[in-house]
Amino acid sequence: MAEHGNAVDELMAMSTEEILQAQLELYHHCVALVKSMALKAATDLRVPDVIYRRGGAATLSDLAADTGIHPTKVAHLRRIMRVLTTSGGVFSIQNSDDGGTPVYKLTRVSRLLVESSRHELSAMVGVLVDPFAVTAFFSIPKWFTDERAASVSLFEVAHGCTRVEMVAKDASYGGMFHAGMTSDSRFILDILLRESSGVFQGVGSLVDIGGGHGAVASAIATAFPQIRCTVLELPDVVAGAPADIGNVEFEVGDMFEYIPPADALLFKWIFHVWQDEDCVKILRQCKKALPPRDAGGKVIIIDTVVGCGSQQVTVSSEMQLWLDVYMMYVDGEERDELEWKKIFLEAGFSDYKITPVLGFRSLIEVYP
C-alpha cells in the first residue's frame, strides 16, 4: 500500500504540463502502429511507383488518378500521405513558389518501394506489417499466463497453426511470405557482396540452409561461378521454387536431421526463429557436415546481434530491440553476442567472428 501511495503522491506532485506530457507520450505509444498501417496502405496502392512514373513528383490528384482511389476517399489519401511525410520521412512534400498545388516526392526510404528498383523491398512491408503477426500480439497476456497457451507459439495461440503450416496451406499468404524473403535476400546479398565478398574466398561448395526459393544461393553462384551452391529446404518450399534459378541445386531435407556436406553452410535470418536448444541441434548437424577450419570449413550467419554497432539509441539499435519482441510471435528471439557465443560453444564450435556491415544485422562466421 505504501508503494501505491507513493505513486499517487508523485502523480499529484506533477505539474499540469508534466501530466499532460505523460498522457501525450502514453497515447503516442498506443497509436504508433498507425504509421505502419499507413505505410502498408501506400505500398499496396503502389504510391511510390506512381511518383516514380510521374518523373519523381506527383500531386494528390495524380496519386488518386493513378492508384484508382475512389473520389470520396481522396481527402483520406491526403491524410495518409501527411503522416508518411511528417513522421519518418517515407515521402517528402514540396510546395511550389507560386502557391500552386504541392507535390509529393520520393525519399531514400520510398525509393526502396519502387518496383523497378534494384533494391525493391515492397514485398517485405507485407511480411513485416502482416495481419497474422499483428493479431497474434493481442494474445500475449494469455501466452504469458495460460499453461496450455505457453506451450506453443503466439501465432498458434491466435491462429491454431504454426506460421510454417500457414505458409504451406494458404497460397496467397505463402506467396507473400516467399516474395518478401526473396526481396530481402537479394537486397542483403547485394550489400554483402559489395562490402564483404571475401567471406566466400576459398569456398568450393556452399549449402544455403532454409534458403527459400534460392535468391541468396543464386546471387552467390552468379558472383562466384566456381562455388557449387545448393539450397536445403522443406518439400513444399522446393516444390514452389522457380524452375529457372541458374546454377543452383535444390535438396529436400530437414536441417535438424541432416545437412549435406559442404565447405560453407549459410543461414540467413534462420536462427532468430528458433530457441537456443534448437539452434544447438542445428549447429551440431552443421559440425558433422563441415571440414575442419584449416580446410576452410565454416558456418556463415546473417542475423541480428543485439547491441552490435552504435552504443547509442539509434534507429538501428531500436530496430534490434523491436525485432526481438516482434519475433516472439513465432517463439523466436534476437541475441546479443554473449547469447550467440553460448550456443556456438555448446554446439562444439571453437571460434567466431562478427562483422557489423549489414545495417541492423551482422555477418557472423563460425568455425569448427
Automatic annotation (TrEMBL):
Pfam family, one: Dimerisation
O-methyltransferase C-terminal domain ranges (all copies): 142-350
MF terms (GO), sorted A to Z: O-methyltransferase activity; protein dimerization activity; S-adenosylmethionine-dependent methyltransferase activity
Active site: H272 (proton acceptor)
Sequence ranges assigned to domain O-methyltransferase dimerisation in this UniProt record: 28-116
GO terms, biological process: methylation
Keywords: Methyltransferase, S-adenosyl-L-methionine, Transferase
Superkingdom, taxonomy of origin: Eukaryota
CDD domains for this protein: AdoMet_MTases
Protein name per its UniProtKB record: Uncharacterized protein
